[in-house]
Amino acid sequence: MGRIRLRAPAKINWTLDVKGRRADGYHEVEMLMQSISFWDDIVLTEYDNGIQVFSNSAGMPLDENNLAAKAARLVKDYFGITTGIHIHIQKNIPIAAGLAGGSTDAAAVLVGLNVLWKLGLTRSGLAELGAVLGADVPFCIHGGTAIARGIGEKLTPLPDLEAIPLVLIKPPFGVSTASVYNGLDIEQIPFHPDWKTVYDLLAQGNLRLLRCHMGNVLESVTTNIHPEINEIKARLDETGAAAAMMTGSGPAVFGVFETISDAQQAAEILKRHYSQVFVASSHGRGVEITKGGSL
Ligand code: ATP
After folding, report:
1. Mean pLDDT, residues 86-102
2. 40, 136, 170, 233: which is the annotated catalytic residue?
3. Residue 293: pLDDT above 70?
4. Catalytic residue among 11, 70, 76, 233
5. What percent of the chain has pLDDT over 70?
6. Which residue's C-alpha comes closest to atom 17 of ligand 1?
7. Residue 292 within a domain
8. 63 an active-site residue?
9. What is d(CA 6, CA 30) in angstroms, rounded to the nearest whole number?
């Protein structure tokens, strides 16, 4: 029975803009996306039949509603595969945080099963297949730095950035992405971030100017429900972050630091106030196979 191990990295948004609302209710977005060096560890093991999910986390469904199980179901149905799969998820990425935790687990299952079951798909083929599971799945498969348009599934990759140190804080509550988008009044968006300016600043290492240009149009919606997000940003400022912003629909917030030791020192201080504080950095890869094959 075959077995494969994978890393499924989280993402942050350097920018998140909403351009309009489609007839089907989904929002047209433009986002500067970044994978980060903070991942769930996934092990896929073949067995007789069916799909089973195991995890250290009780905070997400472990039945067929887990996004990783949905990814396995998609592959099994699409390719008519009868072999079963055990999916073990070591959940490190906080759930319902705006870090694409579910999407990256699904992406890892697609990448892993492609190798285990010799499906012969490229990363782009997998991304196309995975888009039906969620708009962030294609980005999680490719990873790195990219512009995401459409509902998030249309990707334009950008040259990799140097590793930029980050501190992530997850407050002790989650938010539903759908409810945040529903609370957004597109006509009232006060500032549309310009991803190109932000990317250029990041590529130049000009982090101090980031705070004037980074922007997430969902931040005010989530902050209206959870004003604690502003407190977190203020604390990141106090501990020396060059810039701080909510990622995705939140509520996780990231701070950008000049050096990894600055980030580590800030994290030690922030741990006095928050139980979920993580040091990471921007990372040039999406899902990676760590044992059992390559793609
Ligand atoms: P995004 O940034 O893509 O909007 P998110 O990081 O805000 O996503 P997730 O962590 O993906 O949110 O969780 C969203 C919902 O998906 C939660 O209600 C969670 O229970 C459910 N879920 C299903 N499968 C998973 C999974 N493998 N990992 C995390 N959440 C999952």
Report:
1. 97
2. 136
3. no
4. 11
5. 99
6. 96
7. no
8. no
9. 29
